[in-house]
Specification:
- The chain is an alpha+beta fold.
- It has 2 domains: 49 residues; 47 residues, no CATH class.
- It has a 4-stranded antiparallel beta sheet, with no helix packed on it.
- Strand 2 and strand 3 form a beta hairpin.
- The chain is elongated and about 70 Å long.
């Protein structure tokens, strides 16, 4: 544990907070204790995820809904197989989009 304290003080303090009597254990016992801590944390995250109503978690879903709201005023016109012209009604901007090359004229 002294080596761990010298290498990474934050990791040492975190582990010491989780189990203060871990200093006297063998490395195998400590590895099993870490495995158990990780398994408990994964199960807690899984339980939290099962309560979600949608396939997205809350923060990415909020960002996605904001993007959807911003895009509602846009119109696209197909020029050929992979080129589109996109018009933004709110800002009167227009962009050329190439789907094959994944390029847009609005991005520099």
């Amino acid at each position: 544990m002294d080596k761990m304290k010298k290498l990474d003080v934050d990791a040492y303090e975190w582990f010491d907070d989780k189990n203060p009597n871990a200093r006297d254990k063998s490395i195998f016992t400590l590895m099993f204790m870490v495995k158990d801590l990780i398994m408990v944390r994964m199960q807690m995250n899984k339980d939290k995820a099962e309560k979600w109503d949608d396939t997205f978690c809350s923060k990415p879903r909020a960002k996605l809904l904001k993007c959807v709201k911003d895009v509602c005023g846009c119109m696209s016109m197909k020029c050929d197989r992979s080129h589109f012209q996109v018009y933004s009604g709110a800002t009167s901007n227009q962009c050329a989009v190439n789907l094959e090359k994944r390029q847009c004229s609005c991005r520099k």
